[in-house]
Amino acid sequence: MLNVYLTPILRYSVFLVVMISLGACSLIPDSWVKPAESTPPETTRTEFTQGLRCFGGLTKAYGVSLLYVSSSDVEDATGIAGASGGEIPAQATSMLQSAIVGVGGKVVYVANYPVLSANLFKVHGLPLPKDNKQAPSPKIYMDATISAYDRAILNDRVGGSEDGEDGGFSVSRDLTSSMITVDINLLQLPSMIMAQRAQAVNSIELKDTRLDGDFDVTVFGVGIDFDASIKGLAARHEAVRSLLELGVIQSLGRYLTLPWWDCSPLHSKRDPVVVENLQNFYRSLDDPNRVARIQTELSKRGYPIAEANGELDKITIEAIQRFQLDRELPWEPQITEEFFITVMLTPPLTDATAPTPISFMMETLDLKELVDQANRYYQEENYSTASSWYRQAAEQGDAASQRRLGFMYQQGLGVNTDLARAKELFQKAADQGDTQAMVLLGLMFETGHGMPEEPGTAFNWYTRAAERDHPEGQYHLGRLYEEGIGVFANLEEAIEWYRKAAEGGDSKAQEALERLDK
Q: Who contacts 315 (Cβ-Cβ below 8 Å, separation ≥6)?
């Protein structure tokens, strides 16, 4: 406050100077003052970047046919992109193209031919697309629009003021909340019919809560409620990118009737559109075709079924019961609508390298966490899920997981019985010194389970386990010496190995010793 007499012009000039200097004044907290220089974020990774790859894995797991997708230029229906100095990114078209390409799997992006024919094909003397038989024809044309941008749906004023005898001043700054909406629709080619209910309409609310470049984010859409935080003025650009990536996953997931929400970090509930599509499919089938379809789908998910004969036979009922137990569903021997939908929304087992939803989660875990998860599901007798976790740990070289997965293939627990695969996994684990795997290999060679009987090879595996103080291996080695299997009978050796096994806690060895003492 200046306690001197000033002419109106001079007073106004001083007032302006005071107003300008208020940025360093104690009336405004430091947290309200934006730094003079800021570095835009270098990364373009969003919450949905990995989700795109995961969705591509889903298209492979479900065996989707190649889907060629083209796209429009992303229209800014708000007119903000040019008028606001870039608050809405003008390069949104490239963001959409990157999102589609990022899916991979069975989704293939096809460039917008009308644009390329004028700029690329003619320049290089290449034939036009309609004359080029090698050029794939898109089946889906994706149309995306930035349909709304409300810059100040919430506006709170903060600041300070001072009045005096000869004048005064006041300053304020707004706390604002903005809402951005993106619409995506799918046009089916060449019919030019819009895919019904495959659209994605989502909004992001950006709240500039600290006025220092931090933004709180909320995503609104069907089955979605998500909060996060992103930095700086580029927040609006990243919001548009996130909406486009989410829209690609959601719209294609609805069109292909896939559980796209499994690939969303938002952990959304089932999409009612996908569920309704499956309900309509279920109701279109008669009873034999429903049974045949379930037989096929359960087989793809690791439940042993000989053939899709359309009959609710004993093997099919057992597979249905096991699936329901694995997912803690109430026992129902009939193929109800809810059971049918649950099976269809469970991704099939696959050896494809593209990530499925479960391997998408596994990417963030270390080996110990993978094994702990696998053991937990196994103890809960959720064998189908356990096998997926063991498979991931086994591929990283964990011997115990290799042995446990081999046992599941041997017994048909959560996977189709495959004795050759079981032997291969037992061998890998045994070569790393897993003594239990050595015993399991010995039993396979002794009994000829999945291979010709080789008692001598069984003897060698039991010996390797026994010499490493494995009680069960010692018991089986003693038994072979007693019975003369794969080795000359030697009762003294048998008793010696039985004794060592019994000292290690093997009850069968103790029983054998008691029997021989009589």
A: 304, 305, 306
Q: If phi over 0 gives left and psi between -120 and 50 gives alpha, with beta otherwise, what is residue 209?
A: alpha
CA atoms of 279 and 265, how far apart (whole Å): 26
- Residue given tokens 């069960």 in the structure block: 472
Dihedral over alpha carbons 303, 305, 307, 308 (to 10 degrees):
-60
How far apart (Å, rounded) are the C-alpha atoms in residues 425 and 432? 11
Cα–Cα distance between 18 and 22 in angstroms, integer?
6
CA distance 266 to 227: 9
- Reading the chain (518 residues) residue by residue, the pLDDT tens digits are 333 333 444 444 444 443 444 333 333 333 333 343 444 434 444 567 788 888 998 998 898 999 999 888 888 787 665 545 455 666 788 888 889 998 988 999 987 655 544 554 555 455 555 544 556 788 999 999 888 877 654 444 444 444 444 444 444 444 566 788 889 999 998 888 998 888 888 888 776 544 334 444 445 554 444 444 444 345 677 888 888 998 999 999 999 999 998 887 665 588 999 999 999 999 999 999 999 999 999 988 888 776 788 888 888 888 888 888 887 778 888 899 999 999 999 988 765 433 444 444 555 567 888 888 888 888 888 887 788 889 888 988 999 999 999 999 999 888 888 899 999 999 999 999 999 999 999 999 998 887 788 999 999 999 999 999 999 999 999 999 999 999 999 999 999 999 999 999 999 999 999 988 86
Give the span between the Cα atoms of 89 and 82, in whole angstroms: 9
CA nearest neighbour of 494 among 513, 467, 471: 513
Nearest to 202 by CA among 189, 187, 185, 214: 185
Which residue in 518, 454, 466, 456 sits closest to 497, CA to CA?
Answer: 466
Closest CA to 57 of 292, 276, 350: 350
The residue behind tokens 């026992």 is: 331
Total number of residues shown for the chain: 518
Tokens 């429009």, residue located: 72
Q: What is the DSSP string of 216-264?
A: EEEEEETTEEEEEEEESTTHHHHHHHHHHHHHHHHHHHHHHT--GGGG-
Q: What is the largest CA-CA distance in the chain?
A: 125
Mapped onto helix, strand or coil, the DSSP state of residue 176 is strand
Q: Would you state the structure tokens that stand for residue 74, as one six-digit string?
A: 């992303």
Helices and strands: H and E segment counts in the chain: 20, 9
Cis before 190 (ω within 30): yes
- Please report where in the chains the tokens 């875990």 appear, as a residue: 365
Is-contact 107 59, C-beta < 8 A? yes
How many angstroms from the chain centroid is the CA of residue 77? 33
Phi, psi for residue 330 in degrees, rounded to 5: -65, 145
Q: Do residues 341 and 371 touch, judged by C-beta distance below 8 A?
A: no
